[in-house]
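Re: weekly structure request thread

Next one in the queue (469 aa):
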Amino acid sequence: MTPREVLDYAKKNKVEMVDLKFVDFLGTWQHFSVPTSELTLDLFKDGSGFDGSSIRGWRAIQNSDMLLVPDPDTARMDPFTEIPTLSMVGNVEDPITRQGYERDPRFIAQNAEKYLKSTKIADTSYWGPEAEFFIFDHVSYDQNAYSGFYFIDSEEGIWNSGDEGNNLGSRPRHKEGYFPVAPTDSQQDIRSEMVREMEKVGIHVEKHHHEVATGGQAEIDLRFDTLLSMADKMMMYKYIVKNVARRHGKTATFMPKPMFGDNGTGMHTHQSLWKGGKPSFAGKDYAGVSQQCLYYIGGILKHAKALAAFTNPSTNSYKRLTPGFEAPTLLAYSSRNRSAGIRIPMYSPSPKAKRIEVRFPDPSCNMYLAFSAMLMAGLDGIQNKIHPGEAMDKNLYDLEPEEASNIPTLPVSLEEALNNLEDDHQFLLKGGVFSEDIIEAWIAYKRENEVDKVRVRPHPYEFLMYYDV
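Done, posted below.
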C-alpha cells in the first residue's frame, strides 16, 4: 500500500486507533498507539517520536530520542482489539540524521537485502521458517534468593493420564504427538483459528498440525517470502498464536525447551536465492542443486558456531540441542536426512522448489537478525567458494562415537556460541549490514543478562544431586 491507500483503508475500516510497532534488539514487538487524527501523510514522512532509553539492548539515555516511521506495506487491522485499530510496523530513525538506527533489527534486515543485490550474486532471497510452539493450560514460575521453580500443565499432557477425575484419556504419549487425529489431537480447532486470523492479515499459510511432543506442541507453516517480509510476518505470527491461545484461556510459548523428556521447539528455516526471476539453487550437482547452492551450504556450515548466537540465542536453546530429540547438533548436510544440520528437501523435482533447510534455529531468535546472519554466511560461502564436503546420507544419531567425533558440532551452550561469534564475525560486517557495535552489544547483553544470570543461580536438580554431599 501507499501512504494514501493506507488512509483510505483506515477510513473504509472505520479505524479509531493506530498502533505503531517496532522490534527491540532481542526480537520482541514493542508498541505505542496514536489516535486517527495523527494518521496523516506527514506521519509516513516525519514519523512519530518516542523515548528509546528503556528498550533492551539500545544505547544509553543521552541518545534516547527516536522516530518511528511506519511502513505502509505493513498496514493491517489488528485482529484482537475491541476498538478498530490499524496496526503498522515502523522503521526506527535517528531524529537528527534521519538515518536508520543501526540497532533497529528491521534496519539490519533491510541492509542485508540491499547487500545481496549489491553482490550481483542474486537479487532476492526467499525464506520459509517452520516455527513450532507449545499451547499449555497453565504456567507458573518464580525465582528468588531462597526458592526457584516452574510448573507447566496441559490437559493434553500424558502425565495427566493418571488423574482420577473426569479423565477421558486419548493423550499423545511422549514423542508420539506427530499427526494423530482427534480426540488425541485436541487442538485442531484452536490451530485452525490461528490460521484463520493469519489469513485475515495477509499471511499465506500452507499447513498446520500437531507436533511430536505431548502437552500441546504445534506447528503452523507459512508460504515462503522475501527476508524482510517474512521477518515481519513471523512477528505477526507470534502475536496471533499467543493471543488466540489467550482467547481460549490457554498460553502459548516459543521457548525452545519448556519441557523435560520430550522434543523441544525448533524453527527449521528454508531458504533460497533467486536472480532475475530464476532459482539459483537448482542445478546438476548433488540432490539436484547448483554449485552456488553447495557453496552457500558451505558458508552456513563454516560459520554455524557463530551463527548459533543469533539462531539459538537463549540459554534454553541448548537444552533442545541435545542428541536424541530430533534436534540436529552435527554440522553436516544431506538430502531428505533430518539428522543433518542442513537438509535439501526432495518433495518436488521443480527447479523453483530447490532450496535448503537449516534445521538448528529455534523461534526464540530475533527473526530479522537470524535471517540476515544466515544470508551473510551463505553469501560468504559463495564469495569464497567454500565447498561443504561430502554429504552425509546416513542417520547421524546412530554413528559410532569415533565416527561422530570427526564431524563438527554446534556449541553446547549460549556462552560457547557467543565466544564463537566474538572470534568469527567478519563475514557479518560486509556491506555494513552488521557493525562492530551491534556484535559487541549483542554479546555484552547476552553475557550480562542471560548467561551470567543463569550461571549464578542454583538449579533445582542440583539439590537432588548434591544436597546430601
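The first helix runs from residue 3 to 12. The chain has 13 helices and 18 strands.
Next request, please.
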